[in-house]
Amino acid sequence: MPRAIRPQWTFGGNVKGISMTTAVPLEPAKQQSDAAGWVRCEQCRTLTYGKRFARELRVCPFCGRHHPVEPELRLQHLLDAGSAREIEVADTVRDPLGFTDSKSYVDRRNDAERRSGRTRGVIPVRGLIEGQPVVVAVMDFGFLGGSLGSAEGEAITAAAEAALADRVPLIVVTASGGARMQEGALSLMQMAKTSAAFALLDEAGLLTITVVTDPTYGGVSASFATLSDIVIAEPGARMGFAGPRVIKQTVRQDLPEGFQTAEFLLATGMIDAVVKRGDLRGVLSRLVAAASHRAGPDAIYGEVPDKVVMREATDLPAHLAGRPAWDAVKLARELQRPTMLDHAGQWLDGFFELHGDRLGGDCPAIVGGIGWVAGRPAVVIGHQKGHTTGELVRRNFGMATPSGYRKAARLFRLAEKLTMPVVTLIDTAGAYPGIEAEEKGQSIAVAENIRLMSRLPVPILAIVTGEGGSGGALALAVADQVLMLENATYSVISPEGCAAILWKAPEAASQAAEALRVAAPELLRLGVVDGIVPEPVGGAHTDPTSASELVRQAVAEVLHDLCDVELDERLARRLARFRAFGVVAQGGS
């Protein structure tokens, strides 16, 4: 029978809005004395009063070191009080090899069971996070180094099967030194067993989240830990296939500073975020709510939103008629126009940015994540430029590398799995034309995104908010509907590039802009875009807040309509939309 996870220590307190009835444990043998006395940080060596250390969830208040947490208390921190019920796990082999080194495996395991009061190093439970049902499996590094044995693989698999049966998200908290050598090939097989269980959750469209804690190595990192939709790590947590000592001995090279830490993994595109322990519950709650399609605070599901999108030439304001195209080019490039992150801060409720292409990169020129748009959970992705020289340089002026487009593709697939609509915000001079980009397959990354979006089964809305430059823009713009802000541009090449090639004179850029028909009214006439979003008088840069609000209204308007269209019809319309470009209509010229 399922049993409740009962607290083993009791000290009152409240940590960042999380109600607590237990202190955070130190080493089990000295739990009570340390909680009432002083604790020395393993990293900075500073002393902290035990009760404060407990209230801080065993995070050093001086250097931020995240010290280990017992799995029972981890569950109490993450789940609603009293909601955890342990999942039944099948019995597994205890000593399949009759293994003995300096000590028999049976004796080592008996010692671990005696110290922990458990028969395995994973606790799988059903529970609630802010009232939302989830399954959580927590690993214990203190149990034989968190190694992946038959019992642990069975517990992770049982947790995945419970999530599948209940159709709820699965959260795994990892801590492991790798495979359990004393079980030989049976330990190796747990990697396949757990990975297959996660594949079933993918097929069922159920959210999976990994919380990486220190350390997570070997077979765990090379199986279920990195297969989750979203991978979060605590600050400083280390994760890798091989340990740093093994790597250093093998390659005989010095390793980079911070190698394999959470921060290193974030920079190299391997995880989505680094989240402090005290913030984990709130982050997990938000992601679970979005995946469960809970309405946000500004829901309009039952309402018809205000109409702001201009869809006919007759709708356009007088100041757009006959305006030189070069004027639109200059306005589209204004540095104070709202960026992707400006829009996220203005109208994306609960936005949580996701990072990394999982192939070694996290291009800062493309930003994406999950949030609520007019009360509807959605995946929002966009180019990010910046307002200052420093940010422009750091963001590569909004010109994405292959890792940026592959990050976007990963988020498109996540949207498909979770059946969330996609909104893309486009503002780029084009895909980055550099040596490394070519070496890493820029053309392939762009082409694969275009193909992926053409058949993505969820609603897609694309909005050109600034520059829509060539294939770098199109890689985020194969959508059910494509809108432009009234002062945005969209073109196969920049006016300067066209002038240099065809006019042999870059100074002919304004003439090229006119010839290319880069401005919104001409593109609406050509049918390249489906509508135009108005801007404040003088351009979006004159009143960024009002400009962003107009974009929010346009997004709400279009998603309201798109989400009511049946899948087959929506895909057929998208295909027909792009199929028709350049073809002379019957009776036309």
Task: Describe the overall structure.
Helix content is 38%, strand content 18%. With 589 residues, it is an alpha/beta fold. β7 (132-139), α5 and β8 form a beta-alpha-beta unit. α5 packs parallel to α6 (184-204) and α19 (495-503) packs across α20. The chain is elongated, with a radius of gyration of 27 Å. Mean pLDDT is 90; it is low at 1-34.
Distance between the termini: 75 Å
- Please tell me the CATH architecture of the largest domain by its name: Alpha-Beta Complex
The CATH homologous superfamily of the largest domain is called: 2-enoyl-CoA Hydratase, Chain A, domain 1
Q: How many individual domains? A: 2
Number of strands: 20
Indicate the mean pLDDT: 90
Under CATH at level 1, the class of the largest domain stands as Alpha Beta
The CATH topology assignment of the largest domain is 2-enoyl-CoA Hydratase, Chain A, domain 1
Largest sheet: 8 strands, mixed
Q: Radius of gyration, rounded? A: 27 Å
Structural class: alpha/beta
Strand content: 15-25%
Low-confidence stretches: 1-34
Helix content: 25-40%
**Helix run count:** 23
Indicate the overall shape: elongated
Helix and strand topology:
Blueprint: E1 13-15, E2 18-20, H1 31-36, E3 38-40, E4 47-49, H2 50-55, H3 71-78, E5 85-86, H4 105-116, E6 122-129, E7 132-139, H5 150-166, E8 170-176, H6 184-204, E9 208-217, H7 218-221, H8 224-227, E10 230-233, E11 239-240, H9 244-251, H10 262-267, E12 273-274, H11 280-291, H12 325-332, H13 340-347, E13 348-354, E14 366-373, E15 376-383, H14 389-394, H15 402-418, E16 422-428, H16 435-439, H17 442-455, E17 460-469, H18 470-474, E18 481-485, E19 489-491, H19 495-503, H20 509-516, H21 520-526, E20 531-533, H22 544-562, H23 567-579
Parallel strand pairs: 7-8, 8-9, 9-10, 9-11, 10-12, 15-16, 16-17, 17-18, 17-19, 18-20
Antiparallel strand pairs: 1-2, 3-4, 5-6, 6-7, 13-14, 14-15
Helix pairs in contact: 5-6, 13-22, 15-17, 19-20
